[in-house]
Write a structure and sequence with these properties.
The longest helix has 81 residues, at 97-177. Helix 14 (402-420) packs antiparallel against helix 15. Strands 1-2 form a two-stranded antiparallel sheet. It has 797 residues and is mainly alpha-helical. The protein has helices spanning 2-10, 12-31, 51-68, 71-95, 97-177, 181-198, 203-262, 277-282, 290-293, 299-311, 314-333, 345-367, 374-395, 402-420, 427-458, 469-478, 485-491, 502-521, 528-554, 560-587, 599-628, 645-661, 667-689, 699-719, 729-739, 749-755, 761-772, 783-796, and strands at 35-38, 43-46, 465-466, 495-496. Strand 1 (35-38) and strand 2 (43-46) form a beta hairpin. Residues 1-51, 267-272 and 277-282 have low confidence and may be disordered. Helices cover 75% and strands 2% of the residues. One of its GO terms (cellular component) is membrane. InterPro entries: EXOC6/Sec15, EXOC6/Sec15_C, EXOC6/Sec15_C_dom1, EXOC6_Sec15_N, EXOC6PINT-1/Sec15/Tip20_C_dom2. This is Exocyst complex component SEC15. Belongs to the SEC15 family.
Length: 797
């Protein structure tokens, strides 16, 4: 230990090393968990004196020792602990002394080497510092050069970006000057979204950025102005398009009508309208595109759409365009129209404008995307059609001219069919046409009702005379009448026809009425059944309520010639009703319907029968007038050989009636008239014989009465008509029975059926009673006379 202490004192570095070893040993000892117990004070010292934790533990221990006043005991214990540790150290050093010396020698050698190494390192450090300073200077120079290079590159990039921006700005200016607005907008968009960002720090870029909206607005205003000009010119173009479209539709209608009329296979398809599926198949390939013949440049519109879409204001443009087109439509609809003066030019122009307007709308809607919707166009179409209907209704208010309704129908039908071909709904316009048709049919019926009434009222009921062949041809054109060519050739003109002028005139007017009716009905296949029924009822009404009713009223006349002529006219009307029915079936809109039957046929038949009865009545009234002139002396005592004078006049009247007034009547009607007149005469003479105011009659009076009957029988026989031979048979049988000697034969059934079948028993009884009341006062009755009277008494009983 002494040696170690001496060495350490001589060598300060060794002394520091020993202290370090001792400290290391001490720390090593302290790091072991040694416990020192202070038995006397019951204090326990934990020898874990490492770090701050051990120091912190000493505080409470020292405090406790101080408080317990056992400092001396603690110091003693600590001294003992130190002596113990010193002993251990001494024993350790004694055991390892040589090794310790060797270690110290090695450490000294190491120290010398480390000092040499330190000098070398210091020299090397100095050399490196000299070299590093030079390198640092060069590095600084390089960094400066690179900074300059970067600045130059940035400057060049900025200049390049600025040149690009300026070139694009100039390009925008040139594009705008050349009218290439869409290209200019695309360049502006590139400037705004790409290039201006690269030069945003420069003042000119800020100026350009502020100018972009201005230039966009200038472009928008420019294309909008061009569009306005295009819309203004489009109005005249629309009219031309509408005129051509309606012209083509008319040609298409004519072509379809001609094909269905000429081709037997297509004749059954006449009721199919233009635009129907069948018509479109038949006419496929024959239609041309209207726009091919009208030069319409839609570029201004498309340019506007592109520009506004690019700017992002497409809704603004759509609304503006909608307002402009609506204003144009209203401008066309505000055109003054007065149809009541018969001038259709303004109305035709209106329809052409509308057709062209909506054809263009159709093209725009189908050639653009998300610009014109179907709902917008339909709303505009509905507005226009509503106003068109209002214009028509207002213009035709109070109109009484059917021809004007027909002209409007033609124009409106072509208008409907033209726009229907472009898929526009025309239901409201079809309903308007139906309304016009109803008014037209009413006007037409009223017009022809007045015509028919005038014709029939003014008819003189005299046979019609034609003076030339053309007049006869016109009669034959509208009636089934065919004259006897031999008679016509023999007697020539003027030629008398059996009917009066009312018949061919009414037939002509019926034919014209039907064709005028179907002129309006053409194109209404949806309601063909209703229209056919309306026409049928109208024709029936004209024939029944006008022709037949007025003729029926004229039958009140007592002029036989007029009545006969009315019968002849009615017969011709009755026989012509099937022709009217055929005319209706041939011209009606739906040819597959069933047969048509007019009530006028049966009505004319009833009127004819009424007219015949009227002739019977007039003739019988005239016969009654003659009979009133008869002055039979039923108590006559003087026989006469000649008929009564009134019978000559009566027979002359009947002869004149047959040969003159009834000349043109058919033989069957003549026979009926004769039969009815003679039958009436027979009954009238029977009534004279049975007159209850004459209680008695003489045989001579009966003989004189028999002369008159015989005269009439001879007249009947001379007529040569077998249907009227037996007219006076009952009267003849009665006179024969009364004048016979054996009146009792009447009681024999066989004889009665053979000779007296027509006699009514009560008539025979009345006459026999009258005869029996005649009692001769001058002479006595003979046996024959007595037997005759007895036989009559038996019959009477």
């Amino acid at each position: 230990m002494a040696l170690m202490d001496d060495r350490t004192t001589r060598d300060p570095q060794l002394s520091q090393l020993v202290q370090a070893i001792a400290s290391s040993s001490l720390i090593s000892d302290n790091s072991m968990s040694l416990q020192a117990s202070i038995d006397s004070s019951s204090l326990t010292l934990t020898a874990g004196l490492d770090d701050a934790e051990s120091i912190e533990q000493l505080g409470p221990i020292i405090k406790q020792i101080s408080e317990s006043q056992k400092q001396e005991a603690f110091i003693d214990q600590l001294d003992a602990f130190i002596r113990k540790k010193d002993g251990e150290i001494e024993r350790m050093c004694n055991a390892n002394y040589q090794e310790f010396v060797n270690s110290v020698d090695q450490l000294l050698k190491v120290r010398q080497g480390s000092l040499s190494l330190k000098r070398n390192i210091a020299d090397l450090n100095k050399s490196l510092r000299a070299t590093g300073d030079d390198l640092a200077d060069k590095k600084m120079d390089l960094l400066e050069a690179r900074k300059v290079q970067n600045n130059l590159e940035k400057a060049m990039d900025s200049i390049q970006d600025s040149l690009i921006v300026l070139e694009l700005a100039e390009s925008v200016r040139l594009k705008m000057e050349n009218g290439k607005h869409y290209a200019a907008l695309k360049i502006l968009d590139r400037l705004q979204t790409q290039h201006l960002k690269n030069v945003a720090q420069y003042g000119f870029a800020k100026y350009l950025e502020e100018s972009v909206p201005v230039m966009q607005n200038m472009i928008k205003e420019s294309v909008t102005a061009q569009l306005k000009e295009w819309l203004y010119k489009l109005r005249g173009t629309s009219r031309k398009i509408g005129m051509l479209a309606m012209k083509y539709m008319q040609e298409r209608q004519d072509r379809w009508r001609q094909r269905t009329a000429e081709n037997p296979k297509l004749k059954s398809l006449q009721h199919h309208n233009v635009n129907s599926a069948i018509e479109m198949v038949v006419n496929e390939g024959n239609e041309s595109n209207i726009l091919d013949e009208v030069d319409i440049d839609f570029e201004p519109l498309y340019r506007c759409i592109h520009v506004y879409n690019t700017i992002g204001t497409q809704n603004e443009f759509k609304n503006s365009y909608e307002e402009d087109r609506r204003a144009q439509a209203n401008l066309a609809l505000n055109m003054p129209i007065n149809l009541r003066d018969g001038n259709m030019d303004s109305f035709e122009t209106l329809l052409q404008d509308i057709v062209g307007f909506f054809i263009i709308e159709h093209v725009i809607m189908h050639s653009t995307t998300d610009f014109r919707s179907q709902a917008e166009v339909d709303a505009l179409w509905e507005m226009v059609t509503t106003k068109v209907i209002a214009v028509i209704s207002h213009s035709l208010h109070g109109c009484r001219d059917p021809e004007l309704f027909l002209q409007i129908k033609y124009s409106l039908l072509i208008f409907n069919q033209t726009l229907e071909g472009f898929n526009y709904p025309v239901k409201n316009l079809q309903e308007t046409l139906l309304t016009l048709f109803q008014r037209y049919s009413e006007l037409l019926i009223n017009q022809y009702s007045e015509n028919f009434e005038k014709i029939v009222q003014e008819d003189e009921c005299m046979p019609m005379t034609v003076n030339i062949q053309e007049e006869l041809d016109e009669v034959m054109q509208y009636t089934r009448y065919q004259p006897d060519r031999d008679i016509l050739k023999q007697y020539g003109f003027p030629f008398t026809l059996p009917f009066s002028k009312v018949f061919p005139t009414c037939c002509r007017d019926v034919s014209i009425f039907v064709h005028q009716f179907y002129q309006f009905a053409e194109g209404f296949s949806q309601t063909h059944g209703e229209m056919d029924e309306i026409l049928k009822k109208a024709v029936d009404s004209l024939l029944i309520t006008k022709v037949n009713a007025i003729l029926l009223k004229k039958l009140e006349s007592t002029n036989l010639s007029q009545i006969v002529q009315i019968i002849i006219n009615i017969e011709y009307f009755e026989s012509t009703c099937p022709d009217f029915e055929m005319l209706l079936m041939e011209t009606r809109s739906f040819h597959r319907a069933g047969p048509i039957q007019l009530r006028a046929t049966s009505t004319f038949k009833e009127t004819r029968q009424t007219a015949e009865k009227r002739i019977f009545k007039v003739v019988n009234l005239k016969l009654d007038e003659f009979l009133e002139l008869s002055e039979y002396d039923w108590m006559a005592e003087e026989r006469q050989d000649q008929p009564s004078p009134y019978l000559f006049d009566l027979v002359t009247f009947l002869t004149n009636v047959i040969n003159a007034a009834l000349l043109n009547l058919p033989e069957s009607i003549k026979s009926l008239i004769y039969f009815d007149a003679l039958d009436h005469l027979s009954h009238a003479m029977m009534d004279l014989l049975l007159d209850p105011n004459e209680p008695a009659v003489t045989d001579i009076a009966l003989q004189n009465f028999d002369v008159d009957v015989q005269f009439l029988e001879d007249f009947v026989k001379n007529l040569g008509d077998p249907t009227i031979v037996d007219t006076f048979l009952e009267l003849r049988q009665l006179l024969t029975l009364i004048q016979s000697d054996n009146a009792e034969e009447f009681l024999n059934p066989q004889m009665k059926n053979k000779k007296y079948a027509r006699i009514q028993p009560q008539h025979a009884v009345i006459v026999m009673e009258k005869l029996m009341r005649d009692i001769p006062t001058t002479t006595l009755p003979s046996v024959r006379e007595k037997m005759r009277r007895r036989a009559m008494e038996n019959v009477v009983r």
